[in-house]
Amino acid sequence: MFAILVAVTVVLLFGFIWNKTRSRLTHIPGPSGIPIAGNAFELTSTFIMMQKMHEWMEKFGDIFKINLFGEEIVVVSGTLTGEMLVTKGSDFAGRPRIPALESLEGNEVHLVLRDYDPKLRFIRKLVHKGLRQYGEGMDKIEAISVTEIAKCLDKIEKLDGADFDPFPYIHHAISQVMNTMVTGEAVPDGHPMLNKAIDWDRLDGELSQDITLFLPGMDKLAFLLSGKLKDYAGILEFFIEHWRSYEATYDKENMRGLYDVIYKAYLESETDEEGIKISYNNVKYLMFELYGAGITTTHKSIYAFVHMMVTHPDLQKRIQAQIDDVIGSQRTPTTADKHKLPLLEATIHETLRYISHLPFALPHETKKETSLGGYALPNKTQVWPLLSGNHHNPKYFKDPLSFNPDRFLENDGSLSPASSRRMLTPFGAGTRNCIGEVFARTRLFLFTSSLLQRFTLLQPTEGKLNVLDPKSEDYLKKIPCVCPNFKIRAISR
Ligand code: HEM
């Protein structure tokens, strides 16, 4: 017994000294953790992790470090977020390796999780060009979105006021806009692409619950996730096969969508000033990453918006009154109406703040030796911007856990200036900001304005909804966070 006790003490002592001597960040405060595992066992679920992150932010301030089996991660909030993402954006523009996920995409990451290198810069330029041509060009996005939104609303009308879960309706509409953006056309109703997109979303959420993904050495232990990774790879291949079928009819004089734009860059060996080209693998997988990013976050924002409308009926009435005034009941909302509906715009801002469904954006990594808030940081330090820490902080947003779009309005009802919303960064900011922000905001506006123009959203006949608690275990199950499934009624106006 004594021998076992001594052995355990020696291992713990060794672990403690090993962790301490290996630390490159001894000067940064943080929770002490246990030998070898560091803080890993304190972060056993997304919910607990988020609770701890906010607790540590309050205790240690705007910069602290955690340790996951020797991998040190710096967590940043407050005004240091701006220093990290914008002022010193290129110093922090890297992404850490997530080896377990890399194995899915042919041992190379292509866009979202790619490190900041010349190829990433070229890919971001290409995607921006494609989005501008096929998405952010307002006429085009409007035409695509309005058609799909109208189809979705027609389906909801057919329910004739019965209880229903809006989840698949919103998901399919958002996926169809993405399908049209990528290939130039929506898929027929009932096409397997639509349900595969839901399967992908579910699996992506399940994988994100696994904190082990971020641990060093997971490329060797990926078998622990093998079932999920196999299903994920199957869906990925399915999407790619679907898009590949469009290559046979590719015509460079008639660009149909984003896939054609990226495929053309590959076929014609387009280069940038640094002589970078993209490979065929880049074409396939970056399209997949864009497709996924374009659906998962936007869908969850609209789903939460619907929940908020049902639980805040007075707010819903005020938005409807503004829509009736500006647009009326006959004309379809357009993006030109956006600035005339400040209450709706403020409600979209407030939804994104309140739900903070990407609570620490995506992991970043330093590209060189740098500093933050006066603390020196070595090259290749993993850094997470804690966006929810800002969004739910009373220092920046009064009474942050109450849902109150009026916080973004002036006394005369107009939208407050962008400069007053500096701490609201649901899309990140700076060098690695979200590529799809304009596209996402446009779809959010068109969907929510059309929905409230046509329907009043009510509590279901059974199972009343309570106001969503963005700190609850039910909400913080996975990342991106999503409201637990719910039912409502939609009554034609
Ligand atoms: C409500 C909707 C959305 C939200 C809240 C959102 C939020 C974010 C955030 C926080 C990041 C990480 C920024 C960082 O690393 O600091 C990100 C990255 C990204 N988003 Fe979005 N996003 C949304 C919609 C979209 C859409 C519609 C698309 C595509 C059409 C998209 C494509 C991307 C891509 C490609 C990246 C990675 C950029 C890079 O790594 O360089 N997102 N997004």
From TrEMBL:
It is found in: Endoplasmic reticulum membrane; Microsome membrane. It is a peripheral membrane protein. Heme binds at C434. GO terms for cellular component: endoplasmic reticulum membrane. It holds the Pfam family p450. PROSITE patterns: CYTOCHROME_P450. Its cofactor is heme. Belongs to the cytochrome P450 family. PANTHER family: STEROID 17-ALPHA-HYDROXYLASE/17,20 LYASE, STEROID 17-ALPHA-HYDROXYLASE_17,20 LYASE. This is Uncharacterized protein. It comes from Owenia fusiformis.
